[in-house]
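We read letters as residues; the fold follows as tokens. Both lines appear below.
***
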Amino acid sequence: NLLMNFLPFLYSKSGKFYGWFEEAADNNVLAAQALLKLCKKVKDAPQISRHIHDLEHKGDKISHLVYDELNKVFVPPIDAEDIISLTHSLDDTVDLIYASASRIDIYSIKKIDNIMLQLANIIVEATQLVAKTLPKLRNRRTLKDINLIGIQINKLENKADKFLKDGLRNLFKDSHNAKDIICLKDVYEKMEEATDALEDIADVLHGIVTKYA
């Protein structure tokens, strides 16, 4: 009886983790959409970059809440290592979105090329996929549906990798300005790294499905 009375206490806060995962994913969508807006209205880069910085701070706060709760709860809903990995990848995503926006602002890039625009679109699509999928973690019956995200995000990451390679190839072929090469290369790579972080999220989710489905 004592154990039965104690169990609700052990599990009572575990649902918070799912809420924080979903909140972080929604926050990443907002950051990605803001990055795309920046690419379409680059003259507003300083203001939009500051807005994304605020979203990045919000992501940090969510991560801290997860880590603090993980130290308190006795029985987490999934393995602690999976919670940490998922939280880390979600946070990496918003960090890299902000890093991309910040570089466009700092380098005073005046013209957004097709490579940056395509990468921004991919980041938006991938963050939306993650946000749509994370609620399925709450129910064992929908866990297997999560594997679809891995296939879709892998395709998006491959597209991003191709855009990066094409962008770098064109950059070194067509540009004779060393500053342009350095700045644009940095932006391309940061944006592609954001898609890598999103693929990391999909990999973590696949591991969770393998364990629990």
In short: Confidence is low (pLDDT under 50) at residues 1-12. The longest helix spans residues 178-212. Helices lie at 2-11, 15-40, 45-72, 80-106, 114-133, 147-174, 178-212. The chain is about 80% helix and 0% strand.
